[in-house]
Fold each of these.
Amino acid sequence: MSGGEVAGILVAVFWAILVSFLAVALARLAQTLRATTKLVADVTDQAVPLLAEASTAVRSAQTQIERVDAIASDVQEVTSNASALSTTVASTFGGPLVKVAAFGYGVRRALGGRGDAGGRKDEVPVKGSRRTVIVGRAVSRGRGKRD
């Protein structure tokens, strides 16, 4: 065997080993591509029903949000009606009730005196003291003792 023949044999063995490694790599790559294709197909098969369920859930949530919005607007309307009713009742009955209470207080003071009107009997009115009833409370004018 000459040197050229040995070199040719070495090159041929090298190419055979290289082709073997490339064949194994291509086989593994083909196997990986088949597994990837199967995985993508499985994900697609599972994703389509999940997307349909998600779409249904979103529609249901939208319906519930519309219902809550309607309830909130009704509550706001009821609140404004209650506020208007409260204002009406306060203006209708508030003034007359205060006047009746003031009148009753004045009548008790005028008829029974200070000791007989439910106050303390040992209390002596201060001379020159004047009182005015303002929305349910007594305000003292001049110099005198406040209750």
Amino acid sequence: MDIDVRGPRFGAALTTLVLAIVLITGNVWLLAWQTLAFALGAAGGVGRSPYGWLFRRVVRPRIGPPTEFESPEPPRFAQAVGLVFAGVGLVGFALGPDWLGLAATGAALAAAFLNAAFGYCLGCEMYLLARRVAVRAE
């Protein structure tokens, strides 16, 4: 079943905020929270993430029904990519080196910002490219 395109974008906006705070403060626990949010989104789809739940329960009733939909697979893949970067960032901040935490968290922040601000989902584009390559390889 297709999903409301505004949901992943809302999640990306919250992710941008969380990751920016992580970069400013170096708060490992906040990065752990974001890693968990990515893990839940990757495992169950963006609707099962905490930000998806918040969008569905609080935001969507106030902004009305969706007018655009998208397939859930690309955003779910994007959550998995975010999980990898957040996990690497978590290792960098918790165990060192710090530059690894900064770089991985910064990369995840950049991708989340692109989605939140411009509607360009880098992880989704990676998914679509991988699908095209897989089809051509067959």
